[in-house]
Design brief:
Blueprint (H helix, E strand, L loop, with lengths): L2 H6 L5 H12 L5 E4 L6 H9 L4 E6 L2 H10 L7 E5 L5 H7 L5 E7 L4 H5 L25 H7 L2 H12 L4 H14 L5 H11 L14 H12 L1 H15 E11 L2 H14 L19 E3 L9 H6 L7 E7 L35 E2 L11
C-alpha cells in the first residue's frame, strides 16, 4: 500500500471513535495513546479534531509505522511514534515520562495494509509465503507452526483460537501432508484445509473454509490474545479520572477479554450486607456502550472489514486501584451511549523500539 493509498483509507467507525473520545481529549495538554496506530487513520482524525492534543502511537509493525510517520508528519512534535507491542504500554509511558493519559484507543487484529500485502502471508486469497508475522523482527512464522507443532498442540490452537469445529481433522491432515514436504505457501495450506473439511458442512455465504485456521495461526504467531489480556488493563490503569478508552475488536475471543477487563473495574465492591455503598469500593469505570456497537450498513458496504468490528468504550470515574474478584451478584456499572461531544515529543519519523521480551502481532 502506497502512502497515497494509506492516506485515502478511512478507518473503521472513525466518527464514533471521535465522538466517544472527544470529552476526554479536547482540553489543552491532553494526551491520547493510539496503541495500534497502523496507517494512522484514527490518529490523524484525532489530531485534526483537537489542535492541542498530544498523541503517542504504538505499533509492532515497522512498515505500518513508516506509513503513519508520513501521514502524520504535518502534526510535528504533537506526535510520538514507538515501535512496540501494545502490552508494552506501561514501559513506553514510563520511558516517555507520562504518568497518566486522557484517552486510549485500540483497533485490534490484522490491518488492511497487512491483508493487502500478499508477501506478508495473512490472506488465504492469494499465494504467498506462510509468514503472518506482524513484527518481522520476530522469529516464529506460520510455516514453523504448521510444520513443527505436534498434532495435539495444533488441534488446541485451531480449536481455541479459530473456534474451528474440525480442528482435529485439519491438524491430522497437516501432519500427514508435512511428512512428504513442508508447507511453504498460503495456497498450499488453504487447499489442504478446504479438502479436510467435509463438503456438506460448507454452508454458502460462510466464507473460505480456511478462514478460521488462518485466524488461529495468526493469533498464535503474534501472541495476540496474551497481548490484549495485558494491554487493555494496563491502558485502563493509565487513564486519569475522566479519561476514556475505546476498543475495536474483530472476533469474539479478543472482545471477551475487553469486556471482562471493563466489567472488573465497573463493579461496586462494597461487601454484601452493608446498609450503604462504600465510596472507596465504588466502580472505577463507567461503561459507555451498551453491549457492543457495530458499523452501519453504509459503512460496511464501503469498507467490508467494518462488518466484524465490535466497539466498546469506558470512562474512568475513580482513581485506579487493585481489582479484586467481583463479589457474587455485583453488577457492572454500565450506561448507554456516551456523551456525543464530547509536550515535547519527537517527530513521527523518529520511531523507537519498545523494550519487549522476544515473543512470537497491526491498522488503517
Amino acid at each position: 500500500m502506497s502512502p497515497a493509498e494509506s492516506a485515502q483509507h478511512v478507518p473503521v467507525l472513525r466518527e464514533r471513535v471521535l465522538e466517544l473520545l472527544a470529552p476526554a481529549v479536547s482540553a489543552a495538554g491532553a494526551v491520547c495513546v493510539d496503541a495500534t496506530v497502523g496507517l494512522g487513520g484514527h490518529a490523524e482524525a484525532l489530531l485534526a479534531a483537537h489542535s492541542a492534543l498530544r498523541l503517542i502511537g504504538l505499533d509492532r509493525d515497522r512498515q505500518a509505522l513508516r506509513h503513519s510517520a508520513e501521514r502524520l508528519a504535518g502534526f510535528g512534535a504533537r506526535v510520538q511514534l514507538v515501535h512496540a507491542v501494545y502490552d508494552e504500554l506501561p514501559e513506553v509511558l514510563a520511558r516517555l515520562e507520562v504518568t497518566a493519559v486522557d484517552g486510549a484507543l485500540f483497533d485490534l487484529g490484522v490491518s488492511s495494509m497487512q491483508l493487502d500485502a500478499a508477501e506478508r502471508g495473512f490472506s488465504y486469497a492469494r499465494p504467498a509465503p506462510l509468514d503472518m508475522r506482524m513484527d518481522t523482527d520476530t522469529e516464529l512464522t506460520a510455516a514453523a507452526v504448521v510444520n513443527t507443532y505436534p498434532v495435539p498442540e495444533l488441534t488446541r490452537i485451531l480449536r481455541e483460537y479459530g473456534e474451528e469445529r474440525f480442528a482435529g481433522r485439519i491438524a491430522r491432515a497437516i501432519a500427514a501432508r508435512r511428512i512428504e514436504a513442508p508447507f511453504t505457501s498460503t495456497d498450499e495450506l488453504a487447499d489442504l484445509v478446504r479438502d479436510a473439511i467435509p463438503a456438506a458442512t460448507r454452508a454458502p455465504g460462510t466464507g473460505h473454509p480456511a478462514r478460521r485456521t488462518f485466524q488461529a495461526l495468526r493469533i498464535e504467531v503474534n501472541a495476540e490474545l496474551a497481548a490484549v489480556a495485558g494491554a487493555v488493563p494496563a491502558a485502563l490503569d493509565a487513564l486519569r479520572v475522566g479519561g476514556r478508552i475505546v476498543v475495536l475488536a474483530y472476533h469474539s475471543l479478543e472482545d471477551r477479554l475487553v469486556k471482562d477487563a471493563f466489567d472488573e473495574r465497573a463493579v461496586d465492591l462494597t461487601p454484601p450486607g452493608l446498609p450503604v455503598a462504600l465510596e472507596a469500593a465504588g466502580p472505577q469505570l463507567r461503561v459507555l456502550t451498551r453491549g457492543v456497537e457495530r458499523a452501519g450498513e453504509a459503512e460496511v458496504e464501503a469498507n467490508p472489514r467494518a462488518r466484524s468490528a465490535r466497539l466498546r468504550a469506558a470512562e474512568r470515574i475513580r482513581p485506579a486501584g487493585p481489582v479484586p474478584a467481583r463479589p457474587a451478584g455485583r453488577r457492572a456499572n454500565t450506561g448507554g451511549r456516551g456523551n456525543s461531544s464530547g509536550s515535547s515529543a519527537s517527530s513521527p519519523g523518529n520511531a523507537h523500539r519498545g523494550t519487549s521480551a522476544p515473543r512470537s502481532r497491526g491498522r488503517a
